[in-house]
Amino acid sequence: MTIWEFDESVREEGYPIVAGIDEAGRGPLCGPVCAAAVILPEGLVIDGLNDSKKLTEKKREELFEQITSQALAYGIGFAEVEEIEEVNILNATYLAMCRAAEQLSITPSLVLVDGNRTPKGLRFPSRTVIKGDALSASVAAASVLAKVSRDRLLLELDAQYPQYGFAKHKGYGTAAHYEALRQYGPCPAHRMSFLRKFFEET
To answer: Is the pTM of this model over 0.90?
Structure first.
């Protein structure tokens, strides 16, 4: 079954307006977590759409423009570093997902959520889909929007704090990122709860 057939099978169950939700940025050491919600029109096929992790940066950028121009509705939500620190990364991810869903200009019949947990606070009927970004077109589209949106924000952070190399590693814990942390210490964009153990050991 293709990702397009998957969404069609959900519509055939009696959910004519299917939205997909996915997140990007749960694992990095800095920056917000981002989520996107997307409703694609029935019958649309976007060539090359896939789980964002399997795509090149250039392809993701191309798909971002196609998705945002052809989707019936989409929303992009963030949970900031301060919120991650206050409520933990899982609950911050739920916040971002709910914020993305609330931006949808069309009410979905069903929301397909990537993963195995329904976000707390989501006010639409939903279904979790493990590996949804590889199975469902709408979830794959959401994964692209979330990843590109977060990467663009990290480029802005890189301009503010060029010493960390955010443009290259997008905040993930690479050797170069840890070396910069040893040399310069953290900046306000870092998630200190993710770095506590690192600084205890250095």
So the answer is: yes
